[in-house]
TrEMBL record:
One of its GO terms (molecular function) is ATP binding. The keyword S-adenosyl-L-methionine does not apply. Residues 14-250, 246-504 form the ABC transporter domain. It comes from the Bacteria. Transmembrane segments: none annotated. It comes from Leifsonia williamsii. CDD domains: ABC_Carb_Monos_I, ABC_Carb_Monos_II. Keywords: ATP-binding, Cell membrane, Membrane, Nucleotide-binding, Repeat, Sugar transport, Translocase, Transport. Coiled coil: none annotated. This is Sugar ABC transporter ATP-binding protein. Pfam families: ABC_tran. PANTHER family: CARBOHYDRATE TRANSPORT ATP-BINDING PROTEIN MG119-RELATED (PTHR43790), D-ALLOSE IMPORT ATP-BINDING PROTEIN ALSA-RELATED (PTHR43790:SF3).
Length: 509
């Protein structure tokens, strides 16, 4: 046979074809397909409930497929555990961090694979040095010796990323890794991702942020209702086309902000101070008004919100609802006064993962549902069904465990739980973090409707378009202080970011 200069092309580093997965009568994945080439960054997009997470968990060894093909570098594989997947070179960064809170940052990065030194003892010095090197590579500063407990979502995500990078995996799957990162941190992560791509690794990038998808990824695969829809090179498809394929319809207005009549003060915060966290924070939220707390990750926005609701303590200042003072560090009193808090970390702070959707959706109103000390399942389901329908929750049964839902659907359950209390003021931290574009529009429309009915809304968001699109007023927080207050007409990306990154004195000039 004559020699030839042609080389056989390398097989895809990861290939899934017509993969099916069901949980009882619920079909989570009808026909999942994905072809990841070596040296590429491949976006996987779709609405929450489209099957993305199920597909990822099959690749990670958490689930076994019912049908279809799964190949790694051309070889058929059938992982029965996450250990098998990791050994084969697959690393997954999930949407929610999974750190051990009582262990140090270094111990979390090396969990289950600690290097041995002399006499078989764990080489802690080497571990620490490698973690420091990883953080240097990612361009972040985190103390390798500190406990994971109390770390921000952003730091927890970065640690998960460092763990995956340290595994030297050939397939790296990033599930919403930038959801809680600032712009600078996102750019640093992207630089790492591109360097890994240039080394010949394949990266699957899952995100609802289209600016990230189009700036980072080479290829985009769309899924809808548990099935493959399309795969295209990024430069051959538009954002509008991707959205239409994801949702099966046009999403014409992402920020449907309606004009409302602003009433009197509902929430008044004066001089709120917690040393080392925030200082002299004062603001008002009026009836019918959406007020946004903007700023960089770590600026203290979430801490302020938790203190207002009574979850976190503060040493000075007052919180009033409807003109009446709320005792500090008393969430029950805050709820009784008409406050509701949808937290940033829905899994740890907003849900009981081992309980059903209906149980979670009614947790905050159980006293209202009880009759003679008992709550009937029918009453619980009826109350849950109202918000399940209103928020278009994608689950076939209210008895589904909350922990099995996609991230966006979990967010809907938490939101429904608090809206069921009929609050006067809704504090909502990252309302659309991890939520698909179709549901984002629905959540924004709901917030606008609630404001139109006279509810006051305090919204914390790291997404500047969301802040500018939905807020009547923007309060910019930097290092625990409010550095600027901008009305809707005056707020734009430039002056918000200036106030978020400069001292208050400079921002006021």
């Amino acid at each position: 046979m004559p020699p030839t200069d042609q080389q056989t092309p390398a097989p895809p580093v990861l290939e899934l074809s017509k993969v099916v997965k069901s949980f009882g009568a619920v079909v989570a994945l009808r026909s999942g397909s994905l072809r990841l080439e070596q040296g590429s960054i491949h976006a996987l997009v779709g609405e929450n409930g489209a099957g993305k997470s199920t597909l990822v968990k099959i690749v990670a060894g958490l689930y076994r497929r019912d049908a279809g093909d799964l190949r790694l570098r051309g070889e058929e594989v059938d992982f029965t555990s996450t250990a098998q997947a990791k050994a084969a070179g697959v690393a997954v960064i999930y949407q929610e961090p999974t750190l051990f809170p009582d262990l140090s940052v270094t111990e979390n990065v090396f969990m289950g694979r600690q290097p041995a030194g002399r006499f078989g003892r764990i080489d802690r010095k080497r571990m620490r040095q490698e973690v420091e090197g990883l953080f240097q590579r990612l361009g972040v500063r985190i103390d390798p010796d500190r406990l994971a407990e109390g770390l921000s979502i952003a730091d927890q995500q970065i640690i998960e990323i460092a763990k995956a990078v340290s595994l030297d995996a050939r397939v790296l799957i990033m599930d919403e890794p930038t959801a809680a990162l600032s712009g600078v941190e996102v750019e640093r992560l992207f630089a790492v991702a591109r360097s890994l791509r240039d080394e010949g690794r394949g990266i699957v990038f899952i995100s609802h942020r289209f600016d990230e998808v189009f700036s980072l990824c080479d290829t985009i695969t769309v899924m809808r209702d548990g099935a493959f829809v399309s795969t295209d090179p990024t430069d051959e498809v538009t954002e509008d086309e991707i959205v239409r394929r994801m949702v099966g319809r046009d999403v014409t207005e992402l920020f449907p902000k309606q004009e409302t009549e602003i009433g009197g003060p509902l929430l008044e915060v004066d001089g709120l101070t917690s040393p080392g966290v925030f200082a002299d924070v004062s603001f008002t939220v009026r009836a019918g008004e959406i007020v946004a707390l903007a700023g960089l990750v770590g600026a203290g926005r979430s801490e302020i919100a938790r203190a207002v609701f009574g979850v976190d303590p503060y040493t000075a200042g007052t919180v009033k609802v409807g003109g009446r003072s709320i005792p500090k560090h008393r969430p029950v009193a805050a709820m009784a006064a008409g406050l509701a808090l949808v937290p940033e970390d829905r899994r740890k702070q907003g849900l009981v993962l081992e309980e059903s959707v209906s149980r979670n959706a009614t947790l905050a109103i159980r006293s209202k549902l009880a009759k003679a000390g008992f709550i009937r399942n029918a009453a619980e389901n009826q109350a849950a069904r109202v918000w399940s329908s209103r928020l278009q929750l994608k689950t076939n049964a209210l008895d589904t465990l909350a922990g099995t839902l996609s991230g966006g659907n979990q967010q809907k359950v938490v939101l429904g739980k608090w809206l069921a209390t009929d609050p006067r003021v809704l504090i909502i931290d990252e309302p659309t973090r991890g939520i698909d574009v179709g549901t984002k529009a629905e959540v924004h429309r709901l917030l606008s409707e609630l404001a139109g009915r006279g509810m006051g809304i305090l919204m914390i968001s790291s997404e500047l378009p969301e802040v500018l699109g939905m807020a009547d007023r923007v309060l910019v927080v930097r290092e625990g202080r409010i550095t600027a207050e901008l009305d809707r007409a005056a707020a734009d990306a430039e002056n918000v970011m200036f106030a978020a990154t400069h001292a208050a004195e400079e921002a006021a000039r």
